[in-house]
Amino acid sequence: MGCGEGGYSRALLKQGAIVTAVDCSETFTTYVTNKAREESLDIRALCRNANELTGIIDNTFDVVLCSMMLMDVEDLDGTLKEIYRVIKPNGRVFISILHPCFKPKDSKWILDDDKIKVLVSDYFNPTEWVGEIKGIDTSVIYRHRTLSEYIKAFVRNKFTVVDLNEPIPSEEQMDMSSRIKWLSKVPMYMFVELEK
Predict the structure, then answer these.
(1) Which one of 20, 95, 132, 147 is separated from 4 by 20 to 30 angstroms, measured CA to CA?
(2) Which residue has the higher pLDDT, 4 or 83?
(3) What distance in Å separates the CA atoms of residue 23 and residue 7, rounded to the nearest whole number?
(4) Pairing between strand 61-67 and 87-98?
């Protein structure tokens, strides 16, 4: 779900998985199809909104991967209902999102004497705003939800939360860059595993 340019889809194909790549952008699904073809990979790419997975029958998938997309969907409950519908019983959903506690609209990450500080304001106000991604000349809609909103939505849509992880970089990773080292102090990402 939210396959973007398809990097994870191609990696899973190369590991022997049967992959259906889904994204709401026809530009991305076309790119995924063409790139897979270039690499002699067989992929099914569908342009769909996450809350309307038409053409996918119930109980189809063993695993659904939602990498950095669930935070962007407008209809969180509708999306989770559709994921629940298309995943097999006992199937797993793997989610990565920007950590909702430290990435609301007016948050600021500040480096002060090699220490990272995060200023967070208005955390409890779910909000939507238009912003940009550095280096890309296009506007993006960002959405902020609280951590409890996510957990309640998972439970409300009948999922079991199997694991929740705030990743910490290894020593080797921290040696690569001071920006990565910051992530050993404050998590930027949150990973969640759900089960149907």
Answers:
(1) 147
(2) 83
(3) 13
(4) parallel
8: in domain: no
- Phi and psi angles of residue 95, each rounded to the nearest 5 degrees, phi first: -125, 135
Mean of the per-residue pLDDT values for the chain? Answer: 91
The predicted pLDDT at position 127 comes to: 86
- What's the token pair of residue 134? 């550095």
**How many Å apart are CA 78 and CA 21, to the nearest integer?**
19
Q: What is the pLDDT of residues 3-54, one digit of tens each?
A: 999 999 999 999 999 999 999 999 999 999 999 999 999 999 999 999 999 9
CA atoms within 13 A on the CB side of 4: 9
> Is the pLDDT confidence value at 133 over 80?
no
Nearest-Å Rg of the Cα atoms of the chain is 18
pTM for the structure as a whole: 0.90
Q: CATH no. for residue 176?
A: 3.40.50.150
Structurally, how many domains does the chain consist of? Answer: 1
In a domain, 15, yes or no: no
What is the predicted pLDDT for the residue at 105? 77
Asked whether residue 153 is assigned to any structural domain, the reply reads yes
Domain hosting residue 95, numbered range: 49-195
With respect to residue 64, please indicate whether it lies within any of the assigned structural domains.
Answer: yes
